[in-house]
Design a protein that fits this description.
Structural class: alpha+beta
Shape: globular
Helix content: 10-25%
Number of helices: 5
Order of helices and strands: EHEEHEEEHEEEHHE
């Protein structure tokens, strides 16, 4: 029997998603909790790996098991054994050929940024920070150069293991709500550090350090050294994958609702 789980987590305390010998990853904690609940070893496959300090609101995983339990039992039972900053949000049976990563049609990320002359305190680790005022219209003009199918080598980490740097970035939206800016990205897939590298360039434009057309030249140059430095992981959230509708898997969970900047945005500026 194959089941899918939706998992949310605060990534601050972890060395990313993927299992490591130290055991200090989200995958390690999830698999240990599932094994205790199922009373058998469990391995999961995720929709998209996240780096150290990056958060997940609807990370989707699949696993195979011969344990017959109700979906709500998988949720509540597994959460009993998880640390306070990781929680299973939902469980659903899926077809045997469902694959959390390969069945995804697209993936979505949000970056939440606080604009303030003083660094964050209460939401430290949960938001990025810009101490200079940002020009939303300039950032949107820059973002327009990035939408579409492109070679994103200029925004790719040297550690990236993707076979191809060509990805289809279908949407970038930028909204402000009070002191918070919320950037949302959707693509068929993302390269390692791609969103954080895009953010570095968008912030450079927003602060007036670079003009919007500079982003187009960086993209065309396909050279990582031409782009801005990688932005901090703190405000990056994996919103989750999109699957075919007939699977009936949630694309939004309660965890989305508290995200800074989630309220109705102000008029663009």
């Amino acid at each position: 029997m194959r089941i899918a789980l939706g998992v949310s987590y605060r990534g601050t305390a972890y060395l990313g998603w993927q299992s490591q010998p130290s055991g200090r990853t989200v995958q390690d904690h999830l698999e240990q909790a599932l094994a205790r609940f199922a009373d058998a070893p469990v391995r999961v496959v995720c929709a998209g790996r996240t780096d150290a300090g990056v958060h997940g609101l609807n990370q989707v995983v699949h696993l195979d098991t011969d344990r017959r339990r109700e979906p709500f039992s998988w949720v509540r039972g597994t959460n009993t054994f998880l640390p306070h900053d990781i929680a299973v949000q939902w469980c659903s049976p899926v077809p045997a050929d469902f694959h959390a990563r390969n069945s995804a049609r697209s993936r979505r990320y949000a970056y939440v940024l606080r604009e303030s002359p003083v660094r964050p305190s209460l939401d430290t680790g949960l938001v990025g920070w810009a101490f200079r005022p940002l020009d939303g219209q300039a950032m949107r003009r820059a973002a327009a150069h990035l939408v579409g199918r492109h070679d994103f080598s200029a925004f790719r980490s040297s550690d990236c293991q993707a076979r191809s740097p060509v990805k289809h970035l279908t949407e970038i939206s930028i909204h402000r709500h009070g002191a918070y800016w919320r950037f949302e990205f959707e693509a068929d897939a993302f390269l390692h550090h791609m969103v954080r590298n895009l953010m570095g360039c968008l912030i450079a434009v927003g602060t007036g350090t670079r003009e919007p057309d500079w982003v187009a030249r960086v993209l065309a140059g396909r050279d990582r050294t031409l782009a801005a430095p990688t932005f901090a992981p703190d405000g990056l959230y994996f919103l989750g994958p999109r699957y075919d509708a007939h699977l009936g898997l949630p694309m939004h969970t309660a965890a989305h609702d508290w995200l800074p900047g989630a309220a109705a945005p102000e008029a663009p500026r």
